[in-house]
Amino acid sequence: MAKTNTNPASAGAIETNDVAPIPSGERHGKPWHLFTVWSSPNLEFATVFVGALAIGFGLNIWQALLAIVVGNGLAGITHGILSTWGPEAGLPQMVLGRNAFGKFGNLIPSGLSTLVAGIGWFAVNTVSGTLALNALLNIGIFASLAIVILLQVGIAFVGHNLIQKWERYASYFLAAVWLVVIIMVLGHDGIFNVAKADPAAEFPWAGFTLAAGAAYGYTAGWTAFASDYTRYLPANTNKARLGLAAGSGNFLSTTIIMAIGALAFNVLGAGSVFGSNPTADFTKTLGGFGGITLLAIVIGSISANVLNVYSGAMSFLAMGFKLGFKSRRAIMVAVAGVAGGFISYLGVADGHVAHQLENFLLVVSYWVAPWIAIVLVERFISGGKDAGKRALAPEHFSAGLVAFVVATGFSIWGFASQVAYHGPLAVALHFFKLPDGSLVDVPDITALVGFVIAALLYYVLAVPMRKKD
Fold first, then answer.
1. pLDDT of residue 4
2. Where are the domains of the chain?
3. Residue 3 has what pLDDT?
4. Which CATH architecture has domain 31-99+107-363?
5. Residues paired with residue 432 on neighbouring β-strands, in sequence order
6. pTM of the predicted model, to two decimals?
7. Is residue 159 helix, strand or coil?
8. What's the pLDDT at 323?
9. Kindly report the CA angle at 157 between 34 and 72, in degrees rounded to 5?
10. Within the chain, which residues score under 50 in pLDDT?
11. Residue 417's beta-bridge partner residues?
12. Helix, strand, coil shares of the chain as percentages rounded to 5?
């Protein structure tokens, strides 16, 4: 029987539950807490940069803002839904994913989540926080890197309760700072300026889909571990309030900060988006408030990475590895911190590494949409019945893995639109060829196609399998 803590809400005790169901005696918290859990990690420069990408992709400010709202809106809805699954089962998100993928099929999405969140995004945000801390204190880049990594890993190492407290109180400070930033950015002349367009020009579908896809991929990336932070709530928690708090916290924070990124770089120009130091360019627009903004960027990056490294460790444990330690969750946090820290070191040593990694992670986010579609359809087919029990004793079920691999592979092959690759079906939809033969204006609807195909294919495969059981 699982041991119950005498004070289940203590923020100082190291969490030892890892991926096991949370006992009723340790359930605590309120739905509204999820609003701050999911707003705090998005109040950072990585979110600003995703919004700036919309300008970099050639959109005018109104097209950029629309793309941001569309991408984040779709992500926020599913994030709110999956967050409601935690209290009833008391299990992390990737463990619940076993119901759709089976024990062995679940290795692939859990592995992707471990690499993308626990190491990839951890490294990107660490670089952002390190550069901001060094610019603020001028203590040396590697001393700044060490401080940021130790804070991130230390909070995640202790676990769930400390994370909740950190995100809640950090969100108050970050919200106040970013409110001032918003006012200052809105005070600049020309932030809503739109260059006069050629009357014959078409709507920039390529840039729009790229911007909306980047926003969706960034925001939906959190959904792969939505229930990680709701499984400690009482089983009878109001689902509507919980879903609204989690979904709106994620949607509003990403949308507002991405919008500020788009507005600021609409003044700075698209060239600054892909310049050597977009963080420095952004803070220059804030005048004397740049210093406190740098501190907010540091705290925001730490807030994001606490969730990344914690849930990256959870995703690894959801793969089913038996480490034989009571505190194996904490140990895996430390291991992920070392791996992500090494990549962060490469990123601060060479800024191009950090930019390349961030671009790579936005492409890797193509996997999130098919995964979300599959777990949603599984929930619909099963009615959510005995989700926790089934996840702890998963069947050898291949429908999820087949649908995931086919949908992800086909959507990327056919519809991806990146600098190094244009899918043939995306090119067939729309393209423009430059004199040197290179293609531009190719739309990217990879996430949308992957979601639809995964949902349909899983339904077709899963329903007959369920009927045989």
1. 43
2. 31-99+107-363
3. 44
4. Orthogonal Bundle (1.10)
5. 440
6. 0.89
7. coil
8. 65
9. 35
10. 1-5
11. 422
12. 75, 0, 25
